[in-house]
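The aim of this short unit is practical: by the end, you should be able to scan a pair of folded records and say something sensible about each. We start with the first protein, listed as its amino acid sequence and then its structure tokens.
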Amino acid sequence: MATFLLAAAGLADGLEVTTHWRYAADLQAAYPRVTVRPGALYIDHGTVATGAGAAAGLDLCLHLLRRDHGAATANRVARYLVTPPHRDGGQTQYIEAPVPAGGEDRRLADVLAWARAHLDRRPSVEQMAARALMSRRTFSRRFKAATGTTPHAWLRLQRLDTAEELLEATDLPIEDIARRVGYRDAAVLREQFTQRRGIPPRSYRRTFTHASRPAEGTGDGAKAQ
């Protein structure tokens, strides 16, 4: 496995790494200079990145695309792969932001789609539960079973994902983006965005805005999704 090769070469000494949970104890025992975090899907140190297995390898690749080329590129590749753009949490957690499909989950899927389309209205858990024709307690339980996270955490993720896309694809002021994704105060968006990406929204926009937009005169604009 790749993480074992990195450790054997000494490239992971002093670093936190991850691998498939089944082999985590063996990795730690064989290479005590490495700190193994078996719960992580992937860990990125910039020049060294490790993943927790085959599916987590896709998570890591999409993370690297997002890091180096922005959310629009990573999301486009994820659509081609028919996989979520990214999964938060550890190996034992469910996907954080899927849309359930089929059967009784159809109603919940419709609620998630509605909430994503109306982030500017700041949908509450109570409103989402009402649209699902459930009590708040039942809705929260079924929501977590279907998505692996709480409604509040899911909404925050949708706000930040949409903010990334707007920063890349538009020239809207940060204050307008904050309102469009459901923040009352642009300062809250800046704080949460920086916590997630390590850089403030304006720096993110400078890094990714040109890469995410088709060049004028190339004819690519008609193909944009």
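Turning to the second protein, read its sequence before its tokens, just as you did above.
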Amino acid sequence: MIASVRGTVTAITLDHVVVEVGGVGLAIRTTPSTLAGLRRGEEARLATTLVVREDSLTLFGFASDESKELFELVQSVSGVGPKIALALIAVLEPEELRRALASGDYNTLTRAPGIGRKGAERLVLELRDKVGVVSTATASGGPAAAVAWRPKLSEALVGLGFTVKQADDAIATLASDTEDAAVRDGDVGLLLRRALGLLGRHR
């Protein structure tokens, strides 16, 4: 098991980073928000887990040990593989995911691509008692969150190699949909995924 990786970032793409360790470049699948915090030429440390399949070996990396633990935990549920597990980690912060599992918040869980109502119910049923103690604080949202997401999203996009103008154009497009719950609540993870989809069309 490769529990963690520390080395120089040599490449960043839309879904993985290459970290050079001892002269070997390791391709590590990760989330958009984790990629946004990395810089080419700088040292990075990622908590990792190796997923072994008959025809592949895939290394997944996370900015925190907690995210890695949740990634592994949700895969203990029947029908949940690494793709869906990574989507959950990408869309929901660790504390938000724990709270949704512990409280049976199906609406929050179904925000992740690949998770429907039945899948959310199965996750809650099997993991409700395994996620540990969660904070009773109210989840982020409201007017303050709606204002704060723009600079955070801009910084993330620029960190992934897009220009400030490209970032601003994508943000303007997303912000124009005032009925979008992600825009109202300031869901940076989900908005980042949508922005990457918009910008990917013009690359």
